[in-house]
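Weekly sync, protein design subgroup
Attendees: M.S., D.O., the rotation student, P.L. (late)

Item 1: inverse folding check
M.S. brought a backbone from last month's batch and wanted to see whether the design step gives back something sensible before we order anything. D.O. pointed out we never logged the input encoding, so this time it goes straight into the notes. Structure tokens as presented (115 positions):
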């Protein structure tokens, strides 16, 4: 199910590029932010195993909100990190929903952004 969110976003992104003329550079932004977010999860997982200083959950959530949520989804699944914490997962999915709503609005013709 979590991977479906990434597929649905890819479809939404493709529609925004084709129908609304969204700059493909936005995809590069999401890709870079996703790699960075995945790296943060990996660093935090490693720190948790080693008993070292951890990355704050707020930082992980903000990284997801800042276009990195696809990387967060993949990290939760592949690294099995933060995947068993219901409170974190609930807040994570709220940030995903907020990001998607903002993306849809900014990418749509309703936005006042000049393309």
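Designed sequence read out in the meeting:
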């Amino acid at each position: 199910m979590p991977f479906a969110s990434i597929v649905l976003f890819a479809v939404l992104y493709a529609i925004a590029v084709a129908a609304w003329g969204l700059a493909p550079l936005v995809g590069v932004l999401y890709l870079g932010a996703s790699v960075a977010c995945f790296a943060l999860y990996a660093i935090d997982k490693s720190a948790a195993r080693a008993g070292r200083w951890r990355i704050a959950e707020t930082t992980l959530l903000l990284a997801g909100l800042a276009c990195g949520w696809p990387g967060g989804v993949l990290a939760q699944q592949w690294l099995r990190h933060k995947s068993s914490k219901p409170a974190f997962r609930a807040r994570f999915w709220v940030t995903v929903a907020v990001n998607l709503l903002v993306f849809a609005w900014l990418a749509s013709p309703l936005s006042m952004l000049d393309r």
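Discussion: The mean pLDDT is 92. The chain is about 75% helix and 0% strand.
Action: P.L. to compare against the previous round before Friday.
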